[in-house]
Amino acid sequence: MNFLITGASRGIGYDTALALAADPTHQVLVLSRNEAQLQALTQAGQQQFGTNNIAYLAADLATFEPTRVYDWVASFGHLSGLVNNAGLLINKPFMELTTPDWEQTFSINLFGVVRLLQTLQPLFKQAHVINVGSMGGFQGSSKFPGLSAYSASKAALASLTECLAEEWKDEGIACNCLALGAVQTEMLTAAFPGFQAPVSSNQMGSMIAWFLQNGHTFFNGKVLPVSVSTP
Ligand SMILES: NC(=O)c1ccc[n+]([C@@H]2O[C@H](COP(=O)([O-])OP(=O)(O)OC[C@H]3O[C@@H](n4cnc5c(N)ncnc54)[C@H](OP(=O)(O)O)[C@@H]3O)[C@@H](O)[C@H]2O)c1
Prior knowledge:
Radius of gyration: 17 Å
Bound molecules: NADP nicotinamide-adenine-dinucleotide phosphate
Number of domains: 1
CATH architecture: 3-Layer(aba) Sandwich
CATH topology: Rossmann fold
Oligomer: single chain
CATH class: Alpha Beta
């Protein structure tokens, strides 16, 4: 089975990709900007599992050329799963957020996902799409100062998930959003300096890899909180 993970150069995406690569029957495709870190991920897979099943494309989700991404993914065949994991968090009080801050946040957290889904939809076969959301974008959750642009973008991503599940239900494509709580990564440190998350990136990566392969048997169009603490 072929799976694509965005934002795999570090953090949760890196660990999700590694967890999937542990199964030698999987082809794991990874995409983010930092080529050196993606190369390190492929080497980590080789060292840990003795496999050579991670392939990477260095690309920016805000500006990627659709045919370049489509042709690269298509060269491996159909996709069984996509994790839209790449994300950007700008931590600033609402009154200091500039229009470029809002545009940058939405260009990665929402429009990058939209463009990638439109690019790759013809390659999905009985596929499970996971959009990695946040408790910040989960209706009724606790909110925190400085995270308005980020949380609004994740709320939009959650809504997009519900809409796509409906539009694609007859095409064998399931779409779910995991609204993550705190996970120990660089992004968490940017949002909550000094806070120690109860969940490691490694633990969350394993959970997402499992859910990608199994969750669509039980869920479609759902926004699921995956959180054990506040924040
Ligand atoms: N950590 C948490 O507590 C937490 C909580 C809730 C939700 N989340 C969500 O979980 C996801 C992963 O977060 P994380 O904590 O692992 O973050 P992270 O450590 O900051 O990693 C973010 C990843 O996104 C990629 N990325 C950022 N901008 C990109 C762009 N323009 N094009 C392509 N890739 C891009 C980065 O790669 P490059 O820099 O190489 O491009 C990196 O691999 C995000 O969607 C985040 O919102 C995290």
